[in-house]
Specification:
The chain crosses the membrane at residues 21-46, 66-86, 98-115, 121-143. This is Integral membrane protein. Keywords: Membrane, Transmembrane, Transmembrane helix. The protein is 70% helix and 4% strand. With 149 residues, the chain is mainly α. It has one domain (24-148). A two-stranded antiparallel ribbon has the order 1-2. The protein is elongated.
Length: 149
């Protein structure tokens, strides 16, 4: 919240005066935007450029892993890395708050995907998507830790 100082006018509030939830808004927004944009690029690239009208090219399990699941894990990793990189301030020093800032966007998006699949969600698709999420989160957080020391 801004404060009025008679000599300097309005001054922005310091990070300590902000509610703790506000420290998460920018990392969450960055993580969601990066994940959605990279997933969109992946979908356009795979479905329009690589496979085109012939869906039978995705019939092989190896092609499915190489063209869908590994790039999806990379998209999740980029989203986690973006959220963790944007997370600044005193709340970054707390591991729990840094985990919340980094992992919440991609986990929330994955939950939306799970709930939107409804009865089409089988045990194997759930497990594969869960592995993609865990691997992407681990890689993204590892890159952030390596980048920041």
């Amino acid at each position: 919240m801004s404060r009025y100082d008679a000599h300097r006018g309005y001054t922005p509030a310091s990070a300590q005066d902000r509610p703790r939830l506000m420290n998460f808004m920018l990392p969450w927004a960055a993580g969601i935007v990066v994940t959605l944009v990279t997933q969109l690029v992946l979908a356009v690239l795979v479905w329009d450029v690589i496979t085109g009208d012939d869906v039978s090219t995705m019939a092989s399990p190896v092609r499915t892993v190489l063209l869908l699941h590994l790039p999806s894990a990379a998209c999740v990793a980029l989203g986690v890395w973006a959220a963790a990189a944007v997370h600044q301030g005193a709340s970054r020093e707390s591991q729990v708050r840094h985990f919340i800032a980094a992992f919440t966007p991609v986990v929330a998006l994955q939950l939306v995907i799970f709930f939107s699949q409804g009865s089409d969600l089988t045990a194997i698709t759930f497990l594969v998507q869960l592995v993609v999420l865990v691997v992407g989160c681990a890689v993204g957080f590892l890159v952030d830790r390596l980048r920041n020391g």
